[in-house]
Specification:
The protein is mostly beta strands and 197 residues long. It has 2 helices and 15 strands. Strands 2-3-4-5-6-7-8-9-10-11-12-13-14-15 form a 14-stranded antiparallel β-barrel. The relative contact order is 0.22.
Length: 197
């Protein structure tokens, strides 16, 4: 199932999510980070030096901070169960059709996903926090968990501002093409987990 041009995200090899200090947005190594990204790599780089990197492959999202399995949901034709650990929280979510329900830590994840003209919209709860976000081939916007995003696509990446309860700061996000192979609810769940942490 192909999502959208912009949604040519990639859920490819294991998600190696790693948080740590990274060069600032103007540091020469910044471009090197994105140029070196593999086809299945998710990257979030902030002007404050935060770096979250993850490789995504069919059936797994694995890394130092993320260890998730994606399985066929029992009794569901297109359903997926997403289970494991993400950022020190237990994840047990069932993503079927246009709905995702389950838990992240001790908090609920409950999303309703719809297709808009140009992309995807998810509304509900991510780890117990009200969320309403959109992804298309031009923008990634809205609130995901405790963070709000106003990003515009530039080439391979989305760039703009993010605020997680404080002052907004610049972020760049690279989404892998592989994510487009997941059903809408599983894709929205993956975005919620990776961007709402």
């Amino acid at each position: 199932m192909r999502l959208l041009p912009v949604l040519s995200l990639v859920l490819a090899p294991p998600l190696t999510a790693a948080c740590g200090a990274a060069p600032g947005a103007d540091h020469p190594a910044r471009q090197d980070i994105f140029d070196a990204a593999g086809p299945g790599e998710f990257i979030l780089l902030t002007a404050r030096g935060e770096l979250v990197s993850a490789d995504i492959e069919p059936g797994r999202v694995v890394g130092p901070d993320v260890n998730l399995g994606v399985y066929a949901a029992d009794g569901e034709h297109d359903g997926r169960a997403v289970r494991g650990i993400a950022f020190n929280r237990t994840v047990n979510v069932t993503a079927t059709g246009q709905d995702a329900t389950g838990i992240v830590g001790a908090m609920p994840l409950d999303l309703s996903v719809t297709r808009a003209e140009a992309g995807l919209r998810a509304r509900g709860l991510v780890a117990g926090a009200l969320s309403d976000y959109r992804l298309d081939d031009r923008q990634l916007t809205g609130r995901i968990g405790r963070c709000s995003y106003e990003l515009t696509r530039t080439g391979r990446t989305y760039e703009g501002s993010r605020s997680c309860g404080g002052q907004p700061h610049h972020v760049t996000v690279l989404l892998p093409r592989g994510l487009s192979a997941w059903n809408d609810a599983a894709l929205a769940t993956a975005l919620g987990l990776l961007l709402g942490a």
